[in-house]
Specification:
The protein contains 12 helices and 9 strands. The radius of gyration is 23 Å and the shape is globular. The relative contact order is 0.09. Helix 2 (36-45) crosses helix 4, helix 3 crosses helix 4 (60-72) and helix 5 crosses helix 7. Strands 6-5-9-1-2-3-4-8-7 form a 9-stranded antiparallel sheet. It starts with a helix and ends in a 10-residue tail after the last helix. It has 310 residues and is of the alpha+beta class. Among the domains are: 26-73, no CATH class; 76-144, no CATH class.
């Protein structure tokens, strides 16, 4: 049996079930369709050929096979991937290494790059190595709140005025805008409990780290944050965000908090109230570093402008 026949057999088995119905002719594989294993490797390595791209755009079978392959593809959790990227796992952790090296998953390689560049996570990884009590579990809870999105930026036609990023989980959305350059995030949440987000995004070797406090959006239950960009990214863009445990912040993060608040307040003045609310709620927590507490005391004042420079 050739690859074409095997693809037909495997697809039939995958779609078999009590609700199975007769497939339309245009949903059946043709001799021009790639074999099923190719869908998995191309999705992970992002190396579709021009001919495959053209064929996929008009082939209903290939679009369905790609959707199934995407749904069934395995990726390590953000926690697992971070521990691997930071060398916190022993040599017996072969699954992630195989996924990155042999499978060649570009999505997870870019995420590893984001995690390696995040200075906050780097400092927390050092705490884990030092055996600080609860450091590993608290870091794990932060990453468990994470979400990932991606965007393949067009090279030939240039960026469009608004380009949505594709999140892998529900409850989040993001749009890359060109004029002015900014990243707009939206997520489901309660405006009564503002949270601090760590936002990491990059393409190629360039990684950007920012903080954001989402504010109420136009629709009930939707929170929004606008992040200004110095320039638009190029190439495939990967975004990761997670909620920050404020007691894990150190003096090293104070300048970034200052910069984030100043830039966001100029771009989106209504966000100032969300920052005030988050700072006021955070000040009630015990265990804050002195420099962080001092900065948040200034931010929580109703007449606060910029955070004090540190």
């Amino acid at each position: 049996m050739g690859e074409h026949g095997l693809s037909q057999l495997l697809l039939g088995l995958a779609s078999d079930g009590p609700d199975r119905h007769e497939r339309a002719d245009d949903e059946l594989p043709t001799p021009s369709c790639p074999p099923l294993p190719r869908f998995r490797s191309a999705l992970l390595r992002e190396d579709w050929t021009d001919a495959e791209q053209r064929h996929r755009s008009v082939c209903a079978h290939c679009r369905q096979a790609e959707a199934q392959a995407r749904q069934q593809a395995w990726h390590p959790s953000l926690v697992h991937l971070f521990w691997h990227a930071r060398g916190l796992l022993d040599d017996t952790d072969t699954d992630v290494a195989y996924h990155l090296q042999t499978d060649g998953c570009r999505r997870c390689r870019r995420l590893s790059m984001l995690f390696q560049a995040d200075r906050l996570l780097a400092r927390l990884a050092a705490r884990v190595r030092q055996g600080v009590v609860d450091a590993a579990s608290r870091l794990g809870r932060m990453l468990a709140s994470g979400a990932v999105a991606s965007l393949a930026l067009p090279v030939s036609t240039g960026p469009r005025p608004e380009q949505p990023l594709a999140f892998e989980t529900a409850g989040h959305s993001a749009v890359l805008r060109t004029d002015p350059p900014l990243l707009r995030l939206e997520r489901s949440g309660d405006a009564k409990t503002p949270s601090l987000l760590r936002v990491l995004f990059g393409s190629g070797k360039e990684v950007r780290e920012q903080f954001a406090v989402p504010r109420p959006g136009k629709e009930p239950g939707v929170l929004r944050a606008d992040l200004p960009l110095e320039r638009l990214p190029t190439g495939p863009l990967t975004l990761a965000l997670y909620e920050v445990d404020a007691t894990m912040l150190g003096k090293e993060e104070v300048p970034q908090l200052c910069s984030a608040f100043t830039a966001t307040s100029k771009l989106d003045p209504p966000s100032v109230l969300a920052w005030h609310g988050w700072a006021s709620a955070t000040l009630k927590l015990s265990g804050l570093e002195g420099a962080v507490r001092s900065a948040l005391e200034g931010l929580s004042r109703p007449d606060a402008g910029d955070l004090p420079k540190r």
